[in-house]
Amino acid sequence: MEELAGKAGITVRTLRFYRERKLIPPPRREGRIAWYDDTHLARLRTIAALLERGHTLSGIAELAEAFDQGRHVGELLGLGAPSEEVPVHLSPEELADHFGDQATSENLSAALDLGYLATDGGEIVHISRRLLDASAALVREGVPLADVLAAGRHVREHADALAALFADLVLTHGNRTPEDLQRLRPLAKNVAEAELSLALDRRLRQQS
Which of 28, 75, 125, 137 is 20 to 30 A removed from 171 (C-alpha atoms)? Predict the structure, then answer.
């Protein structure tokens, strides 16, 4: 316990408190010896990152309980059945393969706060294969990951506004239901993609 607390940068008293709150899973026991491993350390580092971002211990405990009960990570990331996005499980080494020296603790905290990343035991989970691939491609083009994440936050705000606009358009006409919204979502994607393509055309003309 002392070794684990030291590696996590917390006191033994705090570690005991986390155990009592069931924020970390129990250790493996051999007689009187309690063995902790990298899974426990990863959980403690996640707790520290979430606390730094303003999350409460009660909220973190809820996430920890969901992980320990084997609930699908998509539920924790807000991905229900209607989602078309595929979460990606990564080891820390695989994450570094995508982003190299840009995979810093600051960028990790920003990605956690944005909801792009979560942790599942010793693994890291990215919310979307498409967003992961696009972010990694931009970093390979020389765009700093911090700037990519900042832009992602702005894109999220605009995307939420577009989703609300389309939902209101569909649901306020003809007594339609959420099932109709799900059925018609490809139309929203087509409109958004076409408008973005046209906007990029205009931007390219301005730059030429």
Answer: 75
Instruction: Check the CA dihedral 122-125-129-132 and report its sign.
Output: negative
pLDDT digits (tens, 9 = 90+) for 25-75: 888 888 888 889 888 888 888 888 878 777 777 777 777 776 666 555 455
Task: Supply 202's token pair.
Answer: 């205009």
DSSP state of 100: G
Q: Does the pTM of the predicted model rise above 0.70?
A: no
Give the sign of the dihedral formed by CA 78, CA 80, CA 82, CA 83.
positive
What distance in Å separates the CA atoms of residue 46 and residue 6, rounded to the nearest whole number?
16
Show contacts of 60-66: CB within 8 Å, 24+ apart. Answer: 60/23, 61/21, 61/22, 61/23, 63/118, 64/22, 64/23, 64/24, 65/22
- In this structure, the chain runs to a length of 208
